Amino acid sequence: MSFFKKLKDKMTTQTDQMTEKFKDGLSKTRESFAGKMNELMAKYRQVDEDFFEELEELLIGADVGVETVMELIDELEREAKLRNIKEPEKLAPVISEKLAAKLDKSGEDTKLNMQEDSMTVILFVGVNGVGKTTSIGKLAHQFKEQGKHVVMAAGDTFRAGAIEQLEEWGNRVGVDVVKQQAGSDPAAVMYDAIQSARSKKADVLLCDTAGRLQNKVNLMKELEKVKRVISREIPDAPHEVLLVLDATTGQNAMSQAKTFQEATDVSGIVLTKLDGTAKGGIVLAIRNELDVPVKFVGLGERAEDMQPFEADQFVYSLFKEMVEQEDTEKE
Amino acid sequence: MAFEGLTERLQGTLDRIKGKGKVSEADVKEMMREVRLALLEADVNYKVVKQFINSVKERAVGQEVMKSLTPGQQVIKVVNEELQALMGGEQSKIAVADKAPTVVMMVGLQGAGKTTTVAKLANHLRKEHNRSPLLAAADVYRPAAIDQLETLGKQLEMPVFSLGTEANPVDIAKGAVEKAKEEHRDYVLIDTAGRLHVDEALMGELEQIKSEVNPAEILLVVDAMTGQDAVNVAESFNEQLDVTGAVLTKLDGDTRGGAAISIKAVTDTPVKFAGMGEKIDQLEPFHPERMASRILGMGDVLSLIEKAQTNVDEERAKELEKKMRSADLTFDDFLEQLQQVRNMGPLDDLLQMMPGANKMKGLKNAQVDESQLTQVEAIVRSMTKQEKDDPSVINASRRRRIAQGSGTTVKDVNRLLKQFEDMKKMMKQMSSMQKGKGKKKGKQMNPFSFMQ
Known about the structure:
A: about 55% helix; B: alpha/beta; Four Helix Bundle (Hemerythrin (Met), subunit A); 434 Repressor (Amino-terminal Domain); 3 domains
């Protein structure tokens, strides 16, 4: 059975609704990526050096890291030789197969580590402007919908208006926000928030932090302290440290992931702003080079547009046209 | 390895052709491949890279490089020149309208840093040009965006015009201009909501604001970390609004910032300012020639020199250099040097500007811990005059005393003493190397080695 067939079968067994949402959100990404891929297949009569060069550009244009692309192209060249593939369209499924393999490292858990009978603490970290506060607001909404009691901690005491922004989300969603004055110690806010969430018997505590560039040593130290304070109050907390990454970010996302991982032991990634034309190819590079799974993707402005990440769905959405093309050819 | 500089990238090819009498076209091709990878790793858009490589290749094959005795340097020179030509000269001027107030619109994706940039630009206009701007809060979508601008306005003691979140952004912009006329303010800076360039409804709103208030300046605010998509973003915003310039934000991070080239290439409008930090005064004029070096991973030497010039006393520096050459450096000199370096600002900022900093062993992705410097200072300050002049007298009991006096351990003291000796040795080697006619290719001195 071909790879596409397998993928499609798997998809039809999953809820259509989820896949639809993925498709919608990723339509821009998909149009440009799969469209160009098809163009490429049509343009070349045989798999040669020029073909691979153009493929390389296509992948680099999707923000897949240079290193990952080189690796991928090498593998594909070897595979083409080994299987004696000369026609581009026969190489197409191999390309997607390789991409999916890089995305879907089996055994990696993309589910959130939720505590059954105690409070789950989730810490959000990332550079400035990636959408930490917004992601927290959206997740709070989703937890609330699931009937969970949620508390949010306004740990961004630095940026002007950050506390008000989280409060506004609190009002909209109907969730309590624990805050102190602007400029106060974020670690103290976390301490307060844990005490308050405990006494309110909350199920989930979502902790916001100020955006910081990963090369600011002192700010990274501050973040370590925030995490330490949380762990001191609840020994196995935070149960998740989610790094929020902007999908439009280029190669620097890798540096962000590495540095934040060192400082706070990141357990998952939230990839935001995937509804633009940004290709999100950085996901490939991150999965390939780091052991951090992507747990959520932001596909739009609405609260429900924050979706759990599914590698299969991601690939399916990217290659949908190609999957269907293969089907019609067979019929 | 990601983030290698161009120099390092070219090294392999250069080593191979070193022995050869002349450089072949194939060699140039290989070097061009390295240039290409360096630019791609720096997030320059691949289409822009392609065009760029073609023009560089032409110059390289046509004489300049092939006939040169130092082809490597020649390639870098050509690349650097072409890059600077592409980025244009420095243009950090903000337009002035014939009739006050001058309206400036800030546009861009979510999270690029528009609101912060509005405040920074307002501060810049007042400080450098003696202007009195009015800030307009037209981001009615993001929760608390208005609060953010109002807080910044309070910090700056500048008025902020807002009509709340229920109002239409077009009306807010119009109202702000009216208000500025009434109050004789000469600039209106309009903060707009972040939006995706593919969001037709919201892009239409920007066009409407533009046609109503006729801005003299529309600045596209772009995150310096943006990847390949920078081209699409810049193209769309420019097509619909005819932007007049760009502001590159978060340039104080460790990104190469290739987006700068992409933006310039597709919009042909200059990057005017760069956001260099979270504080309100950290907006700097954009220097294209420095950016070229940064993108190529060659370090921002000019900024470093500038910093050094304003902070280092030249006379004393010369004296110090003499001492270093004669290798009778004392701990007092060492301390002085340390303080001069620290006066220049946070060390990681400096490190980033240093060419080849990421090449030096132990400095690769170095995270400089300032507290370690404080510790070094404390140790040196706990020494007696005699000990500072002649560290060889420092025996075990003196070490214990120094450790106690500086609140460190004997181990820390030992490490510093050892590093100081190594440094002296290295200097001795270097100065003897420079005296003799021997090759200059010695071990590079690493003045920061004591921090490892």
